[in-house]
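--- STAGE predict ---
source: upstream dedup step, 1 unique chain passed
mode: sequence only
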Amino acid sequence: MNRGSILSISAMTVLGLALVPSSAVSQQKSLKDQLVGAWTLVSRDNTAPDGTKGQPFGPNPRGILILEGSGRYAWMVGRPDRPKLKSTNASQVTAAELGAAAQGFGANFGTWSVNEADKSLMRHYDGALIPNNEGLDTKVSVSLAGDELKLSGNSPLTGERTDAVFKRAK
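--- STAGE serialize ---
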Protein backbone atom coordinates (compact mmCIF):
# COMPACT_ATOMS: atom_id res chain seq x y z
CA MET A 1 0.00 0.00 0.00
CA ASN A 2 1.41 3.40 -0.89
CA ARG A 3 1.71 6.41 1.40
CA GLY A 4 -1.19 8.26 -0.29
CA SER A 5 -3.58 5.35 0.32
CA ILE A 6 -2.63 5.14 3.99
CA LEU A 7 -3.20 8.88 4.47
CA SER A 8 -6.52 8.65 2.64
CA ILE A 9 -7.72 5.74 4.82
CA SER A 10 -6.58 7.55 7.99
CA ALA A 11 -8.39 10.73 6.97
CA MET A 12 -11.61 8.78 6.20
CA THR A 13 -11.39 6.98 9.57
CA VAL A 14 -11.03 10.26 11.46
CA LEU A 15 -13.89 11.81 9.47
CA GLY A 16 -16.06 8.74 10.09
CA LEU A 17 -15.48 8.88 13.84
CA ALA A 18 -16.28 12.58 13.85
CA LEU A 19 -19.66 11.84 12.28
CA VAL A 20 -20.59 9.10 14.80
CA PRO A 21 -22.77 10.47 17.61
CA SER A 22 -20.72 11.11 20.73
CA SER A 23 -22.98 8.82 22.76
CA ALA A 24 -21.88 5.88 20.63
CA VAL A 25 -18.20 6.63 21.22
CA SER A 26 -18.44 7.52 24.92
CA GLN A 27 -18.99 4.99 27.66
CA GLN A 28 -22.32 4.54 29.39
CA LYS A 29 -22.58 6.43 32.69
CA SER A 30 -21.75 4.53 35.86
CA LEU A 31 -24.65 3.33 38.01
CA LYS A 32 -23.77 5.98 40.60
CA ASP A 33 -23.91 8.73 37.98
CA GLN A 34 -27.29 7.44 36.78
CA LEU A 35 -28.70 7.48 40.33
CA VAL A 36 -27.64 11.03 41.22
CA GLY A 37 -30.62 13.36 41.47
CA ALA A 38 -34.07 13.57 43.01
CA TRP A 39 -36.56 10.68 42.89
CA THR A 40 -40.25 10.78 43.84
CA LEU A 41 -41.83 7.76 45.49
CA VAL A 42 -44.42 5.80 43.49
CA SER A 43 -44.97 2.84 45.83
CA ARG A 44 -43.51 1.17 48.91
CA ASP A 45 -44.43 -2.34 49.96
CA ASN A 46 -43.13 -4.32 52.94
CA THR A 47 -43.01 -8.05 53.54
CA ALA A 48 -42.47 -9.25 57.11
CA PRO A 49 -40.28 -12.30 57.79
CA ASP A 50 -43.49 -14.35 58.26
CA GLY A 51 -44.67 -13.36 54.75
CA THR A 52 -47.25 -10.77 55.87
CA LYS A 53 -47.47 -7.95 53.34
CA GLY A 54 -48.22 -4.33 54.13
CA GLN A 55 -48.03 -0.73 53.03
CA PRO A 56 -46.98 1.26 56.11
CA PHE A 57 -47.38 4.56 54.28
CA GLY A 58 -50.63 3.64 52.53
CA PRO A 59 -51.41 2.74 48.92
CA ASN A 60 -50.37 6.17 47.60
CA PRO A 61 -47.41 7.32 49.70
CA ARG A 62 -45.71 10.63 49.09
CA GLY A 63 -41.97 10.72 49.32
CA ILE A 64 -38.66 11.81 47.93
CA LEU A 65 -35.15 10.37 47.75
CA ILE A 66 -32.34 12.79 46.99
CA LEU A 67 -28.96 11.30 46.06
CA GLU A 68 -26.22 13.91 45.75
CA GLY A 69 -23.16 13.32 43.63
CA SER A 70 -21.04 14.15 46.69
CA GLY A 71 -22.27 10.97 48.42
CA ARG A 72 -24.90 12.51 50.71
CA TYR A 73 -28.58 11.52 50.67
CA ALA A 74 -31.93 12.47 52.23
CA TRP A 75 -35.11 10.38 52.22
CA MET A 76 -38.60 11.25 53.43
CA VAL A 77 -41.94 9.48 53.06
CA GLY A 78 -45.38 10.12 54.48
CA ARG A 79 -48.94 8.88 54.35
CA PRO A 80 -51.14 11.47 52.63
CA ASP A 81 -53.92 10.71 55.15
CA ARG A 82 -51.99 11.45 58.37
CA PRO A 83 -54.11 13.22 61.01
CA LYS A 84 -53.77 17.00 61.12
CA LEU A 85 -52.52 18.51 64.36
CA LYS A 86 -54.91 20.68 66.41
CA SER A 87 -52.33 23.46 66.57
CA THR A 88 -49.64 24.67 64.19
CA ASN A 89 -47.59 25.75 67.21
CA ALA A 90 -45.24 22.85 68.02
CA SER A 91 -45.18 23.71 71.73
CA GLN A 92 -48.96 23.20 71.90
CA VAL A 93 -49.03 19.77 70.25
CA THR A 94 -49.66 16.83 72.57
CA ALA A 95 -47.34 13.83 72.62
CA ALA A 96 -50.24 11.62 71.47
CA GLU A 97 -50.93 13.87 68.46
CA LEU A 98 -47.27 14.01 67.53
CA GLY A 99 -46.93 10.25 67.93
CA ALA A 100 -49.90 9.60 65.62
CA ALA A 101 -48.47 11.96 63.00
CA ALA A 102 -45.01 10.41 63.26
CA GLN A 103 -46.35 6.86 62.79
CA GLY A 104 -47.26 7.73 59.23
CA PHE A 105 -43.94 9.39 58.42
CA GLY A 106 -40.37 8.24 57.85
CA ALA A 107 -37.18 10.18 57.29
CA ASN A 108 -33.44 9.62 57.35
CA PHE A 109 -30.26 11.11 55.94
CA GLY A 110 -26.62 10.22 55.66
CA THR A 111 -24.13 8.96 53.10
CA TRP A 112 -24.50 6.60 50.17
CA SER A 113 -22.33 4.60 47.83
CA VAL A 114 -22.83 2.12 45.01
CA ASN A 115 -21.36 -1.30 44.32
CA GLU A 116 -21.28 -1.35 40.53
CA ALA A 117 -20.51 -5.09 40.38
CA ASP A 118 -23.63 -6.31 42.18
CA LYS A 119 -25.81 -3.26 41.40
CA SER A 120 -26.46 -2.38 45.00
CA LEU A 121 -26.76 0.85 46.94
CA MET A 122 -25.43 1.18 50.49
CA ARG A 123 -26.76 3.87 52.81
CA HIS A 124 -25.24 4.85 56.15
CA TYR A 125 -27.81 6.47 58.47
CA ASP A 126 -26.39 9.57 60.14
CA GLY A 127 -29.81 10.65 61.39
CA ALA A 128 -33.28 9.10 61.35
CA LEU A 129 -36.79 9.63 62.71
CA ILE A 130 -36.35 6.18 64.31
CA PRO A 131 -33.21 6.70 66.44
CA ASN A 132 -32.48 2.94 66.48
CA ASN A 133 -31.52 3.22 62.77
CA GLU A 134 -28.82 5.83 63.39
CA GLY A 135 -25.36 4.47 62.68
CA LEU A 136 -26.67 1.50 60.70
CA ASP A 137 -25.78 0.58 57.14
CA THR A 138 -28.40 -0.78 54.78
CA LYS A 139 -27.84 -2.45 51.45
CA VAL A 140 -30.51 -2.58 48.74
CA SER A 141 -30.48 -3.99 45.25
CA VAL A 142 -30.95 -1.49 42.44
CA SER A 143 -32.95 -1.90 39.27
CA LEU A 144 -32.92 1.07 36.93
CA ALA A 145 -34.91 1.32 33.70
CA GLY A 146 -35.08 4.78 32.17
CA ASP A 147 -36.68 7.08 34.73
CA GLU A 148 -37.86 4.25 37.00
CA LEU A 149 -35.81 3.15 39.99
CA LYS A 150 -36.57 0.07 42.11
CA LEU A 151 -34.85 -0.49 45.44
CA SER A 152 -35.27 -3.78 47.33
CA GLY A 153 -33.70 -4.91 50.57
CA ASN A 154 -34.12 -6.11 54.13
CA SER A 155 -34.13 -4.02 57.30
CA PRO A 156 -31.11 -4.82 59.48
CA LEU A 157 -33.31 -4.36 62.58
CA THR A 158 -36.51 -6.21 61.69
CA GLY A 159 -35.60 -8.42 58.74
CA GLU A 160 -38.59 -6.95 56.92
CA ARG A 161 -38.20 -6.69 53.15
CA THR A 162 -38.94 -3.35 51.53
CA ASP A 163 -39.64 -2.85 47.83
CA ALA A 164 -39.81 0.79 46.76
CA VAL A 165 -40.41 2.21 43.30
CA PHE A 166 -39.42 5.75 42.39
CA LYS A 167 -39.59 7.92 39.30
CA ARG A 168 -37.05 10.58 38.44
CA ALA A 169 -38.27 13.97 39.63
CA LYS A 170 -38.80 16.44 36.81
